[in-house]
Write a structure and sequence with these properties.
single chain; alpha+beta; Heat Shock Protein 90; five-stranded antiparallel beta sheet; 3 helices; 33% helix; 30% strand; globular
Length: 142
């Protein structure tokens, strides 16, 4: 079974509702288990919100393109944006053993994404950030 979908979002946090609805629909169409849909939504919401808040900084209208592809039980997700260059793989991992009040703000979202996804790849191409993720998905139990 192969299924794909492209989602284009404006650089507006209100678009996160559209993203969640599209992920839910993609999950139903593909027969994904609930945990996989929730994990996908969490990861994409975190990454998309970061692009909107930090990459575009609320400056003008921009777009984020998300491509979901499921082939057998392998999910491939690609996010493209024209924001400032940002490679999440080069970000220092937060010291999660440090007391909360002594940790710098930020970095936990990328940490969680890296923990939840099997493979991450980043490249800058034609003035765009391109983040590709791969995840093995369990089939839904009927």
């Amino acid at each position: 079974m192969a299924e794909s979908r492209t989602i284009t979002l404006k650089s507006d946090l209100a678009e996160l509702r559209t993203l969640a609805a599209q992920i839910e629909d993609f999950g139903r169409t593909c027969g994904l288990d609930r945990e996989s849909v929730l994990k996908l939504n969490l990861v994409l919401e975190e990454l998309t919100a970061n692009i909107i808040l930090h990459g575009y900084r609320g400056e003008g209208e921009h777009f984020i393109h998300i491509r979901l592809e499921l082939m057998n039980q392998d999910l491939r997700v690609q996010i493209e944006d024209e924001a400032e260059p940002f490679d999440p793989l080069q970000q220092k991992m937060p010291d999660i053993d440090r007391p909360l009040e002594k940790r710098p703000i930020g970095g936990l979202g990328i940490f969680f994404v890296r923990q939840l996804i099997d493979e991450l790849d980043y490249r800058r191409e034609r003035g765009r950030n391109v983040l590709t993720m791969k995840q093995r998905i369990a089939p839904a139990v009927a």
